[in-house]
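Researcher: I'm comparing several assemblies side by side, and this is the next one on my list. It has 458 residues spread over four chains. Same procedure as the others: predict the full complex and return the structure.
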Amino acid sequence: MALVNPTLQTPVTTADKVFQQMLHAIVEGHIAAGSKISEPELAKQYQISRSTLREALNRLEKCHLIERKPNIGSKVVECTIEGLLEIYVVRESLEGMACRQAAIYMTDQEINEMKDMLTQHASMQALKEGTAYYQEEGDLDFHYKVILGSHNQQLINILCGQLYHLVRMYRCQFGMNSPRASKAFDEHSRIIEAIADRDGELAEMLMRRHIAASRKNIENKIAEKQQQN
Amino acid sequence: MALVNPTLQTPVTTADKVFQQMLHAIVEGHIAAGSKISEPELAKQYQISRSTLREALNRLEKCHLIERKPNIGSKVVECTIEGLLEIYVVRESLEGMACRQAAIYMTDQEINEMKDMLTQHASMQALKEGTAYYQEEGDLDFHYKVILGSHNQQLINILCGQLYHLVRMYRCQFGMNSPRASKAFDEHSRIIEAIADRDGELAEMLMRRHIAASRKNIENKIAEKQQQN
DNA sequence: ACCATAAAAATTGTCGACAATATATAGATT
DNA sequence: AATCTATATATTGTCGACAATTTTTATGGT
């Protein structure tokens, strides 16, 4: 029930279905990052015409998962360290604001649901005596809920509809940018507290620190790796 | 030489050209906000096939200027007060961060160019003995420059490639959300100062206040209008 | 007169073919 | 042998036609 982007519509047209299949394939790396996309080849592979494949490609482009140059073709985006850090900067900014708005606009029911989710995650974390679950789906669930809690359609579209596909792609392919399990959980609780207190200013600050901490964590890992060489 | 989105590629394919024409038409209201888009009709109007028109529509959708429902069709987005306020929230967040990044990454040359631009705007403002120029193109130029100064491709894409088309659309159609001329100019100078001082924290704060002030200005006008009725 | 149903018209989605452009191959020249 | 040019191949862009779906209109019943 997790790892599913909340803005993803249920596919109705064939282009929709192929889009979602390709989305999955790109995020998981089955279609390699940076690789060129051959329209005739993929059309044959999915057993659809080139037109509908192009329709699917257009949606992937909308998510910033592929890039297109006129008369030349499409490429899957590359996963670079710089790209990852750029995404963190945007997330820090936007999710911080989303959190501030959530403190204003989330209903009491939504807040309670989020609290329930967190306790549920806590038990799961204990159950698995590890942090695997929380590192993966749980973290995303939390962030999605906050974003939706902003009740701001622009924020929701940009974050869930675009940026978070890339977030998941980087998480699958780099691996190193999963949440720092133990600390992340505490940070999440504090953020929910601030939202429940309707303290938007604090909520924004905490979310920004939460994301900035992840970014710095990665920057450190990078630095370590570079020292080894 | 302003009012031109810096991320807009020079059109190469016919779909590109039609896209830019329609972009212009929607922003200026020649294609009415909220109106339904008839593919056959527009294809005939632009003298292209429906396929290439659909290609253009896909790009408009990427800019969030039209919305599409499967098997039903496309509509131009509506200009609502709520929608405008949502955009301001996102701008406050993202442009604030862009400004912080600009203080880090802008080159000295870029900063000088921006200073030059501002003095040029000042003289124009005096020349026209009004604030028309600055209210329109000048303000956009300034904000574009800051955004580009972030050197963050994600920020640039989201702001220039998507959000600012909507900003311009609202400005054309509502009119009331143009910059508060006299104050805006001073605020712009202070922001540039902060960037030149490489004070990212201050730069972000000033930009956020600058945009928040515009938003509050609109909220007040709305409130006034509602009191009249 | 109103509502439900069925037929007709219009609109969107998908397909295959052709045109325009870019890439790869072969040949000629120095 | 290397470089430039010309040809051939492959890929992307555009077109018109058909299929599937939705909207409108017409019809009949209460």
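Model: For your comparison table: Residues 38-40, 50, 54, 70-73 of chain B lie near DNA strand C (CB under 10 Å from a C1').
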